[in-house]
Here is the input.
Amino acid sequence: MASLYDLLLEAGVQATFADKLREDGWTVELFGMAAASLDKFDDELKDILGDLHDITTAVQRSAFRLAWTRCQTNTATPSASMPAPNATSSESASAPSSWSETFPPKLTAQIVTEMKQRFRKHYPAEVLLPETTPSLRLLSLVHHQKSKSEFRWVPWKYRLSQFKADELSSAKPTRMAKTEGLQLHAL
Here is the structure.
């Protein structure tokens, strides 16, 4: 595995910046873990470079991003020498990426009324009608994400008004019991 210095030079980072990171003690693993996402990496890069960040060009910042993504791929597979955390935390960490969907907890009537009161306070000109009020499913999903500060894409099928959600739920046909077996038995 190449050193961070070599990886930075391969990505096109100037030797001045690569030397600074090497002097500060950065390794491939540490640099790969510097930020959780590419959006946050730009802010983290300011902290890493300090005063040198002001003299970087857009090309140099792009080279740092390229090196960071390469470090991400190099550190994606954990080494066998590193002890794994307990199994329950690794299973719970992989749960959000699984295909099964977990529904957010239902909101109480008190929380919904508080949300409506805050909305009316901040937007007094807006009228809350069933056609404009978000569905309870959407409210609970957004409230859950906001309480955890974990914002994710809300699928379009949940972006319904209260009126549309009621309309869709009432439009579902009721299931009829299968009577073929009863009719054949009667013959």
In short: The chain has two domains: 4-74, 109-171.
